[in-house]
Amino acid sequence: MVQQVTRGIKISVITKYEGSFYKDYKIQYAFEYTITIENQSKDSVQLNARHWEILDALNNLETVTGEGVIGKKPVLKPGESHTYTSGCLLTSPFGAMQGFYSMVNFTTTKKFKVIIPTFKLSAPFAIN
């Protein structure tokens, strides 16, 4: 598990290898990640968007930007948390992801970024 706190918002990430399969004559490695976003600040906040940089061992970089997480824009009061699970496909048995969430503080109405720490994606048989 990796964790990081930015402006009182704690991000925790757990990953899991799901297996491999062929798609368009190329092998794909499937990974699952579960993220918990915990509001340790004194203000209510809302997650509005996400930005991901996904890198595999072959130096293929994929950038993903979008609204919310899994179709939701959670509002977190102080002490509350939101957990969700998602996944990604890589063309190699290991890689990494990093990024940030765009959030708004309801008390100050200011937007801010919360860093998603870099986390590794690794198939158990891969040596990296």
From TrEMBL:
Residues 3-128 form the ApaG domain. Gene3D superfamilies: ApaG domain. Pfam families: DUF525. This is Co2+/Mg2+ efflux protein ApaG. It comes from Hyunsoonleella aestuarii. The lineage of its organism: Bacteria, Pseudomonadati, Bacteroidota, Flavobacteriia, Flavobacteriales.
